[in-house]
Amino acid sequence: MEIFKIIEPKKAIVPIVISIPHSGTTIPKDIKINLKKRMRRYMDDTDWYVHNLYEFASSLGITVIRTKINRWVIDLNRDPESLLLYNDKRLITTIAPTTDFFGKKIYKSSNLEPDQTEINRRLANYYWPYYKELETLLQSRKREFGKVLLWDAHSIRHKVSTIQEEIFPDMILGNNDGATAHPKLINTALNVLKSGEFKINHNLPFKGGHITRYFGKPENDIHALQLEMNKILYMDDNEINYNTVRAKKVINVLEKTMESLIETIKTI
């Protein structure tokens, strides 16, 4: 089973790697059979089609890695021990989720939910291989260029009341309050994202998940930024179908952002 896919650059490599850890739709049969029928059909917490938005990346020399495994099998953007990323009472799903973002049970019954032995198996088979490959890519770029930027790409429903009552802004750039990337990279990303028609928040309500915080070590010349975006920016209002007209506007600003980051990282 292919657990992740790497999209190699089509031109000269640049020191940027894009990670897409939540767009995977594969659930192994031995796990899928234990999920509620409606859950395994819709997989609501999936970052649907996010990889489509970054298809331009390889033409800029950027390497992309994306998972093929669904986040309900193992969540690549959570702490492996399910330590909390936030302490503001929001609902945060665990490393091997048993509920969706709305708190609804995923499994048919509680006795079918993964125990620690099963969680450890999933970590070994799906989680750590992704991290190992991502680490390999980052270290390779760092050796070649002396520095590297990791861009972790995500999306979320426009409203999730278990996280916050208000509708989410269009996009949220996260860097753990400036701890995971050089200020020049942060400012470049913010300025270009804001140059479009979208409302951009910074570290609110998302500061970057485990991937951003784990890999982002500016003092070691490895920088990391997370972009969370509202699904209705590139999907229909029902958040089920891809909308090419809406997506085109998103792709345009993402491409400009990457072009600017390629130039900025040369200067730090």
Automatic annotation (TrEMBL):
One of its GO terms (molecular function) is N-formylglutamate deformylase activity. Keywords: Hydrolase. Gene3D superfamilies: Zn-dependent exopeptidases (3.40.630.40). The keyword Hydrolase applies. It comes from the Bacteria. The keyword Cytoplasm does not apply. Its EC number is 3.5.1.68. This is N-formylglutamate deformylase. The lineage of its organism: Bacteria, Pseudomonadati, Bacteroidota, Flavobacteriia, Flavobacteriales.
